[in-house]
Design goal:
The protein is mostly helical. The chain is built from twelve helices and no strands. It is found in: Membrane.
Length: 250
Protein backbone atom coordinates (compact mmCIF):
# COMPACT_ATOMS: atom_id res chain seq x y z
CA UNK A 1 0.00 0.00 0.00
CA UNK A 2 2.98 2.32 -0.25
CA UNK A 3 2.13 3.05 -3.88
CA UNK A 4 -0.28 5.97 -4.21
CA UNK A 5 -2.38 4.43 -7.01
CA UNK A 6 -2.67 1.11 -5.17
CA UNK A 7 -3.67 2.97 -2.02
CA UNK A 8 -6.50 4.71 -3.90
CA UNK A 9 -7.79 1.33 -5.14
CA UNK A 10 -7.68 -0.03 -1.62
CA UNK A 11 -9.60 2.93 -0.20
CA UNK A 12 -12.16 2.60 -3.00
CA UNK A 13 -12.60 -1.09 -2.18
CA UNK A 14 -13.32 -0.27 1.48
CA UNK A 15 -15.92 2.30 0.42
CA UNK A 16 -17.50 0.06 -2.26
CA UNK A 17 -17.14 -3.58 -1.17
CA UNK A 18 -20.03 -4.63 -3.44
CA UNK A 19 -17.94 -4.04 -6.63
CA UNK A 20 -16.25 -7.40 -6.29
CA UNK A 21 -15.13 -8.01 -9.90
CA UNK A 22 -13.87 -4.47 -10.36
CA UNK A 23 -11.47 -4.91 -7.43
CA UNK A 24 -10.11 -8.13 -8.89
CA UNK A 25 -9.63 -6.48 -12.28
CA UNK A 26 -7.62 -3.58 -10.84
CA UNK A 27 -5.57 -5.94 -8.69
CA UNK A 28 -4.48 -8.25 -11.52
CA UNK A 29 -4.10 -5.46 -14.07
CA UNK A 30 -1.54 -3.79 -11.81
CA UNK A 31 0.12 -7.06 -10.81
CA UNK A 32 0.52 -8.32 -14.38
CA UNK A 33 1.26 -4.98 -16.02
CA UNK A 34 4.70 -4.83 -17.72
CA UNK A 35 7.35 -3.10 -15.67
CA UNK A 36 9.45 -2.02 -18.66
CA UNK A 37 9.57 1.68 -19.47
CA UNK A 38 7.65 2.49 -22.66
CA UNK A 39 10.48 4.77 -23.80
CA UNK A 40 12.92 1.86 -23.70
CA UNK A 41 10.54 -0.29 -25.77
CA UNK A 42 10.23 2.49 -28.38
CA UNK A 43 14.00 3.00 -28.50
CA UNK A 44 14.69 -0.73 -28.94
CA UNK A 45 12.04 -0.96 -31.67
CA UNK A 46 13.48 2.01 -33.56
CA UNK A 47 17.01 0.58 -33.28
CA UNK A 48 15.83 -2.82 -34.54
CA UNK A 49 14.07 -1.24 -37.52
CA UNK A 50 17.15 0.88 -38.27
CA UNK A 51 19.46 -2.15 -38.24
CA UNK A 52 17.10 -4.05 -40.52
CA UNK A 53 16.92 -1.05 -42.87
CA UNK A 54 20.68 -0.71 -43.11
CA UNK A 55 21.40 -4.37 -43.83
CA UNK A 56 18.47 -4.56 -46.26
CA UNK A 57 19.84 -1.59 -48.21
CA UNK A 58 23.31 -3.13 -48.23
CA UNK A 59 21.84 -6.34 -49.62
CA UNK A 60 20.05 -4.42 -52.39
CA UNK A 61 23.22 -2.47 -53.18
CA UNK A 62 25.29 -5.66 -53.46
CA UNK A 63 22.64 -7.21 -55.69
CA UNK A 64 22.87 -4.19 -57.99
CA UNK A 65 26.68 -4.46 -58.13
CA UNK A 66 26.51 -8.20 -58.87
CA UNK A 67 24.03 -7.53 -61.67
CA UNK A 68 26.12 -4.74 -63.21
CA UNK A 69 29.14 -7.05 -63.14
CA UNK A 70 27.26 -9.35 -65.54
CA UNK A 71 26.27 -6.57 -67.97
CA UNK A 72 28.80 -6.67 -70.86
CA UNK A 73 28.92 -2.86 -71.21
CA UNK A 74 30.03 -2.25 -67.62
CA UNK A 75 32.09 -5.43 -67.29
CA UNK A 76 34.22 -4.62 -70.35
CA UNK A 77 34.83 -1.07 -69.12
CA UNK A 78 35.75 -2.29 -65.62
CA UNK A 79 38.07 -4.97 -67.03
CA UNK A 80 39.84 -2.40 -69.20
CA UNK A 81 40.32 -0.06 -66.25
CA UNK A 82 41.68 -2.93 -64.15
CA UNK A 83 44.19 -3.82 -66.87
CA UNK A 84 45.31 -0.20 -67.18
CA UNK A 85 45.88 -0.05 -63.42
CA UNK A 86 47.82 -3.32 -63.52
CA UNK A 87 45.38 -5.16 -61.31
CA UNK A 88 44.86 -8.02 -63.75
CA UNK A 89 48.42 -8.22 -65.09
CA UNK A 90 50.06 -9.72 -62.04
CA UNK A 91 52.68 -12.39 -62.60
CA UNK A 92 51.65 -15.91 -61.84
CA UNK A 93 52.78 -17.32 -58.52
CA UNK A 94 55.07 -20.29 -58.41
CA UNK A 95 55.68 -23.01 -55.88
CA UNK A 96 53.78 -22.87 -52.59
CA UNK A 97 52.24 -19.49 -53.40
CA UNK A 98 50.62 -20.77 -56.55
CA UNK A 99 46.84 -20.42 -56.49
CA UNK A 100 44.17 -22.37 -58.27
CA UNK A 101 42.29 -21.01 -61.28
CA UNK A 102 39.16 -20.71 -59.14
CA UNK A 103 40.92 -18.48 -56.61
CA UNK A 104 42.34 -16.29 -59.39
CA UNK A 105 38.89 -16.02 -61.00
CA UNK A 106 37.29 -15.01 -57.68
CA UNK A 107 39.96 -12.35 -57.10
CA UNK A 108 39.46 -10.92 -60.60
CA UNK A 109 35.70 -10.86 -60.00
CA UNK A 110 36.16 -8.88 -56.78
CA UNK A 111 38.49 -6.44 -58.57
CA UNK A 112 35.89 -5.83 -61.28
CA UNK A 113 33.13 -5.31 -58.69
CA UNK A 114 35.29 -2.86 -56.73
CA UNK A 115 35.92 -0.81 -59.88
CA UNK A 116 32.18 -0.78 -60.67
CA UNK A 117 31.48 0.43 -57.12
CA UNK A 118 33.96 3.29 -57.50
CA UNK A 119 33.16 4.29 -61.08
CA UNK A 120 29.37 3.93 -61.29
CA UNK A 121 27.03 6.12 -59.30
CA UNK A 122 23.99 3.97 -58.55
CA UNK A 123 20.90 6.02 -57.76
CA UNK A 124 17.41 5.23 -56.59
CA UNK A 125 16.45 2.29 -54.40
CA UNK A 126 19.72 0.43 -55.09
CA UNK A 127 22.12 3.24 -54.24
CA UNK A 128 24.85 2.83 -51.65
CA UNK A 129 23.27 3.03 -48.19
CA UNK A 130 24.08 5.96 -45.95
CA UNK A 131 23.85 5.69 -42.19
CA UNK A 132 22.10 9.07 -41.95
CA UNK A 133 19.16 7.72 -43.99
CA UNK A 134 18.09 5.11 -41.44
CA UNK A 135 15.12 5.70 -39.16
CA UNK A 136 17.10 6.34 -35.96
CA UNK A 137 19.17 9.16 -37.43
CA UNK A 138 16.16 10.57 -39.27
CA UNK A 139 14.36 10.93 -35.92
CA UNK A 140 17.41 12.44 -34.19
CA UNK A 141 18.03 14.87 -37.05
CA UNK A 142 14.36 15.80 -37.51
CA UNK A 143 14.70 19.20 -35.69
CA UNK A 144 17.72 20.05 -37.84
CA UNK A 145 15.88 19.12 -41.06
CA UNK A 146 12.86 21.14 -39.97
CA UNK A 147 14.94 24.25 -39.31
CA UNK A 148 16.79 23.74 -42.59
CA UNK A 149 13.50 23.48 -44.48
CA UNK A 150 12.12 26.64 -42.85
CA UNK A 151 15.27 28.59 -43.79
CA UNK A 152 15.14 27.23 -47.33
CA UNK A 153 11.43 28.04 -47.70
CA UNK A 154 11.97 31.62 -46.50
CA UNK A 155 14.85 31.97 -48.98
CA UNK A 156 12.62 30.66 -51.78
CA UNK A 157 9.83 33.14 -50.96
CA UNK A 158 12.28 36.04 -50.74
CA UNK A 159 14.17 35.27 -53.99
CA UNK A 160 11.41 34.10 -56.32
CA UNK A 161 8.22 35.63 -54.90
CA UNK A 162 9.33 38.96 -53.48
CA UNK A 163 12.36 39.80 -55.65
CA UNK A 164 11.06 37.93 -58.72
CA UNK A 165 14.37 36.29 -59.67
CA UNK A 166 14.49 33.74 -62.48
CA UNK A 167 14.71 30.07 -61.60
CA UNK A 168 18.03 28.28 -61.89
CA UNK A 169 18.44 24.73 -63.19
CA UNK A 170 18.13 23.17 -59.73
CA UNK A 171 15.04 25.20 -58.93
CA UNK A 172 13.43 24.25 -62.25
CA UNK A 173 14.10 20.56 -61.66
CA UNK A 174 12.70 20.87 -58.13
CA UNK A 175 9.43 22.33 -59.45
CA UNK A 176 9.20 19.62 -62.11
CA UNK A 177 9.78 16.92 -59.50
CA UNK A 178 7.02 18.38 -57.33
CA UNK A 179 4.62 18.40 -60.29
CA UNK A 180 5.46 14.75 -60.99
CA UNK A 181 4.99 13.87 -57.30
CA UNK A 182 8.28 11.97 -57.20
CA UNK A 183 10.66 11.58 -54.29
CA UNK A 184 14.22 12.84 -54.56
CA UNK A 185 15.64 9.32 -54.94
CA UNK A 186 13.09 8.48 -57.67
CA UNK A 187 13.89 11.66 -59.57
CA UNK A 188 17.64 11.09 -59.24
CA UNK A 189 17.26 7.63 -60.76
CA UNK A 190 16.04 9.16 -64.05
CA UNK A 191 18.47 9.36 -66.95
CA UNK A 192 20.17 12.69 -67.64
CA UNK A 193 18.64 12.91 -71.12
CA UNK A 194 15.16 12.70 -69.56
CA UNK A 195 15.91 15.66 -67.30
CA UNK A 196 17.28 17.58 -70.28
CA UNK A 197 14.01 16.89 -72.11
CA UNK A 198 12.07 18.25 -69.13
CA UNK A 199 14.12 21.46 -69.24
CA UNK A 200 13.85 21.80 -73.02
CA UNK A 201 10.07 21.55 -72.80
CA UNK A 202 9.99 24.01 -69.87
CA UNK A 203 7.96 21.71 -67.69
CA UNK A 204 8.45 23.94 -64.65
CA UNK A 205 5.65 26.01 -66.21
CA UNK A 206 2.36 24.47 -65.11
CA UNK A 207 0.66 24.73 -68.51
CA UNK A 208 3.56 22.99 -70.27
CA UNK A 209 3.58 20.23 -67.70
CA UNK A 210 -0.16 19.61 -68.13
CA UNK A 211 0.36 19.22 -71.88
CA UNK A 212 3.26 16.83 -71.29
CA UNK A 213 1.20 14.85 -68.78
CA UNK A 214 -1.65 14.39 -71.26
CA UNK A 215 0.81 13.26 -73.93
CA UNK A 216 2.29 10.66 -71.59
CA UNK A 217 -1.19 9.39 -70.68
CA UNK A 218 -2.14 9.06 -74.35
CA UNK A 219 1.11 7.24 -75.11
CA UNK A 220 0.51 4.87 -72.22
CA UNK A 221 -3.01 4.15 -73.48
CA UNK A 222 -1.63 3.32 -76.94
CA UNK A 223 0.96 0.96 -75.48
CA UNK A 224 -1.68 -0.76 -73.36
CA UNK A 225 -3.96 -1.07 -76.42
CA UNK A 226 -1.19 -2.80 -78.37
CA UNK A 227 -0.02 -5.00 -75.48
CA UNK A 228 -1.27 -8.62 -75.95
CA UNK A 229 -1.55 -9.12 -72.21
CA UNK A 230 -3.89 -6.15 -71.84
CA UNK A 231 -5.91 -7.38 -74.82
CA UNK A 232 -6.39 -10.74 -73.12
CA UNK A 233 -7.32 -9.00 -69.87
CA UNK A 234 -9.92 -6.77 -71.56
CA UNK A 235 -11.33 -9.78 -73.41
CA UNK A 236 -11.63 -11.67 -70.14
CA UNK A 237 -13.27 -8.69 -68.39
CA UNK A 238 -15.78 -8.42 -71.24
CA UNK A 239 -16.66 -12.11 -71.44
CA UNK A 240 -16.23 -13.26 -67.85
CA UNK A 241 -15.51 -10.42 -65.48
CA UNK A 242 -14.72 -10.66 -61.76
CA UNK A 243 -17.33 -11.80 -59.30
CA UNK A 244 -19.88 -12.87 -61.89
CA UNK A 245 -22.84 -14.89 -60.59
CA UNK A 246 -24.85 -17.37 -62.63
CA UNK A 247 -27.87 -19.43 -61.66
CA UNK A 248 -28.27 -22.89 -63.16
CA UNK A 249 -31.69 -24.49 -63.14
CA UNK A 250 -31.80 -28.12 -62.09
Amino acid sequence: LQDEETRKDYDYMLDHPEEYYRHYYHYYSRRLAPKVDVRIVILVTVCAISVFQFFSWWSSYNEAINYLATVPKYRIQATEIARQQGLLNKTKEKGKNRRSKEEIREEEEEIIKDIIKNKIDIKGGYQKPKIYDILLFQILLAPFYLCKYIVWYCWWIYCFTIKGQEYGVEEKLYIIRRYMKMSQSQFDSLEDHQKETFLERQLWIRENYEVYKREQEEELKKKMAMDPRWKRYRRWMKNEGPGRLTFIDD
